[in-house]
Amino acid sequence: MQYQHTQTGGLHHLLYAVVGVLLIGAWFVRGAPGMVAILAITFALVLVLAVSLKTLTVQDEGEELAIRFGPVPLFSKTIPYAAITAVEADRTRLVDGWGIHSVPWRGWTWNLWGFDCVKLTLGRKVIRIGTDDVKNLVVFLRGKIS
Hints:
The protein is of the alpha+beta class.
């Protein structure tokens, strides 16, 4: 049994809006070279981040589960199936946010868009993987860890 699912979310659209605001800001401060440079660097970083957070792919890689944001693959993680002690459907909270976050009392969250997720317990650690395919991912992972 193999698993591969790619979710597209709206987070990149929010970041593109920030890019637009930065461009407008650069236009208004064009007479101040230092400010233009700061806005240009920020623009470039946010643009790369936006392109990097367009999709979230979760896929089976034999002995481990791979989580990758894309299409520019700056952020990825693999989780060995042997390390997973429990799997359950869950929902993220507003405090978990979108993207990659760690909240001390909730664990790590890898989420692109929405609040549906799969909660993986790895001993004392928790990782939540946001997905619009919760049911199939839970069934797949339970099959891999049993």
